[in-house]
Amino acid sequence: MEIINKFIEMETDKGINIYNITPQLEAVLASTSIQNGQLLVFSRHTTTALAINEYEERLLVDIKVYLQKLAPESDNYLHNDLNLRKNIPPDEPMNAHSHLMAMTLSTSEVVPIVDGKLALGTYQSILLFELDGPRKRTVFCQISGQ
């Protein structure tokens, strides 16, 4: 069995934004000789998340509203009281809500590879959720199989 590690890097926008990274992942897979196996996608950040879902404009708005209700930016969070924290950088954002949203979602997804293609359903896309930003983000991809 072969294992290939790759990275996708991207610049994100401020606030909650949802990116369809399926095309980038398909390109990563196409650059390998793997025909059957699996793709592990892993977010390397504590204020981003991954999910497999439909990438449809109105649904994306619904998802953003849902996440904002779960962890409103305006709530009081201990993480945001910078006076209580040690060794924080001078540009530290008030982003406790972003961490909480990320914990509600997931940091990784695994997708089967069949005949050299991702075995996603008709309406499924692999989505990267930026919950803070703007930042340079890195997504780790591990492709295993033969």
TrEMBL record:
InterPro entries attached to this UniProt entry: UPF0047_YjbQ-like (IPR001602), YjbQ-like_sf (IPR035917)
Protein origin, superkingdom: Bacteria
A Pfam family matched in the record: YjbQ
Gene3D superfamilies registered for this protein in UniProt: YjbQ-like
Species, as recorded: Scytonema hofmannii PCC 7110
Name of protein: Secondary thiamine-phosphate synthase enzyme
